[in-house]
Specification:
Nucleotidyltransferase, domain 5; alpha+beta; 3 helices; 118 residues
């Protein structure tokens, strides 16, 4: 039975999430992307709280497309700034089942450049 791309990504994400969880000391950066936008949240899974978030649909980032590497870097820079403001320095990166390539890799590199360790 042929599986859709979406089903395959969801299976990969479930497989990753079995081993990966965010704590108060090391929250999880959950990445989500579509063709036009990219967004991410920093989540404390123990408490079930979102500590910081950024998205390409925010008014501050409307001028930047979320569908390319430059947009992914802009969202990551904003998220790392908000993480520093919340006192977060180390995180666990959850790529959401997406390949670590292109926008996802650029996003991760920009988070590291912004001061987050993972």
């Amino acid at each position: 039975m042929a599986r859709t791309t979406r089903e395959l990504r969801q299976r990969r994400h479930a497989r990753i999430r079995r081993r990966l969880a965010g704590t108060a000391l090391r929250p999880r950066v959950a990445l989500s992307r579509s063709h036009k936008h990219i967004s991410a949240q920093i989540i404390d899974d123990d408490a079930g709280r979102t500590l910081a978030a950024a998205s390409s649909v925010e008014p501050a980032l409307r001028s930047v497309s979320g569908g390319n590497i430059a947009g992914a870097k802009a969202v990551a820079a904003l998220l790392s700034e908000r993480a520093r403001a919340a006192g977060i320095t180390t995180v666990v990166f959850d790529r959401g089942g997406y390949d670590y390539h292109g926008r996802v890799a650029a996003f991760a590199d920009e988070l590291r450049a912004g001061g987050l360790e993972f």
